[in-house]
Amino acid sequence: MVHEVQGVIAREKGAPVEVTTILVPDPGPGEALVRVQACGVCHTDLHYREGGINDEFPFLLGHEAAGIVEAVGPDVSSVALGDFVILNWRAVCGECRSCRRGRPQYCFDTHNATQKMTLADGTVLAPALGIGAFSEKTIVAAGQCTKVDARARPEAAGLLGCGVMAGLGASMFTGEVGFGDSVAVFGCGGVGCAAIAGARLAGASTIIGVDIDPRKLEVAMQFGATHTVNSSGNDAVEAIRALTGGNGANVCVEAVGNAKVMEQAFFARDLAGTLVQVGVPTPEMRIDLPMIEFFGRGGQLKPSWYGDCLPSRDFPILIDLYLEGRLDLDRFVSETIELDGVEEAFHRMERGEVLRSVVVIAS
Ligand SMILES: NC(=O)c1ccc[n+]([C@@H]2O[C@H](COP(=O)([O-])OP(=O)(O)OC[C@H]3O[C@@H](n4cnc5c(N)ncnc54)[C@H](O)[C@@H]3O)[C@@H](O)[C@H]2O)c1
Ligand SMILES: [Zn+2]
Ligand SMILES: [Zn+2]
Question: Alpha carbon of 294 to those of 80, 86, 239, 266: distances in Å?
Answer without folding.
Answer: 50, 39, 21, 9
